[in-house]
Structure prediction request, 391 residues.
Amino acid sequence: MNLDDAPEQAALRAEVRAWLAANAEPRVRTSLDRAESPADIVRGRDWQRTKYEAGWAGLTWPERFGGAGRPLIDQIVWDQEAAEFDVPEETFIVSTMLAGPTLVDAGDEGQQARHLPPMLDGRAVWCQLFSEPSAGSDLAGVSTRAVKVGGGWRVSGQKVWNSGAHYADWGLLLARTDPAAAKHAGLSYFLLDMRAPGVTTRPIRQITGARHFNEVFLDDVFVPDEELVGAPGDGWRIARITLAHEREGLAVRRRVDLAAFLELARAATVDGAPAAGRADVRQEVAEIWLRAQALQLLNYRVLTSIARGTSPGAAGSVGKLLGAALINRVGRLSVALQGPEGLLDGADAHDGGRSQYAFLDAVARRIAGGSDEIQRDIISERVLGLPRRSQ
Ligand SMILES: Cc1cc2nc3c(=O)[nH]c(=O)nc-3n(C[C@H](O)[C@H](O)[C@H](O)COP(=O)(O)OP(=O)(O)OC[C@H]3O[C@@H](n4cnc5c(N)ncnc54)[C@H](O)[C@@H]3O)c2cc1C
Prediction:
């Protein structure tokens, strides 16, 4: 297998790296790409606009929608290079990874013309309003109701865990329009103006201390007909398009950067002696390193099939499961290697508390984008050929 860049990707990589070097600071160990405070969001919008003006936004989107019409491999190259710089990519993740590609695939001309340009140039931030208190893994069970009225729909219900909803301008909303229809058939897909009367957003404080996601309450919110995507009852089909783009985007962005961890492992001491001299530490570091190499190779396989337009199948689930487990393992050892100082946080801690943040944040990786148990279900059925679970 030849993992080197083809000449065109090597040229693109050099171009991307030179542009990033001229427009951003190199990433340092303490850099965290957070999209949480108003200042983070202003920075995220400015960065999106800067990218757009330079032609780096919407790399894989069709040119007629303001994108660059490039192949997925170019996006991978961009993401690999951007990971080396302190750039705020997080604010526009849902907009460019989920909302835009969904509207390119399933939106009508009006929706595409209204919504795609502001996503690319930094004007409109989007969030995903799918999960509910009783519908997460079992997403087709959403109970938020949309009732037909003159000129549109009235929506009431509650969503939860919605990343960035507290600053988003628009949301991708899955709601039930036909309670009498079979579970999957009764859903519809709407584009929701987050400033519409009746939308209340309450940030949820996470274990890291961040307020990254939210509860969203919808109280008789009016959504005009023109913001229904597809036909009534098409919601499940279109939600699956969004989820496929989410899986693909997560695979493109999945990487385990061990540089800071290895540096810490080399420098750490236990009872005054180098931690790296201990058999149990060496064993765990070696195991983590090996798993990271295997994960990277698996990810290349997943990305190759996505780039060829074929489904990676259960390999995507294996990558998601192993990636989340590895991030948790790195977090645990990074904090443990600091001994009692591992209990410190923020400015008092090693590297400004980056390991502590990563350690706590890693828990969410086992849940977001499909939980460990759901990935195991998929692997057991599609790879191991075990019988389907009973509903
Ligand atoms: C960081 C983060 C960001 C998120 N951002 C968004 C967002 O922007 N928009 C949005 O809509 N949602 C978002 N989510 C929600 C996410 O999609 C859900 O948390 C996820 O789908 C799991 O659903 P749930 O939380 O309802 O858990 P549940 O589905 O209730 O699961 C609870 C537990 O039961 C297990 N379980 C469930 N079903 C089965 C089964 N059939 N077999 C075995 N075990 C099972 C699960 O694995 C889990 O351990 C986010 C979540 C996180 C952690």
Summary: The chain has three domains: 7-124, 127-235, 255-382.
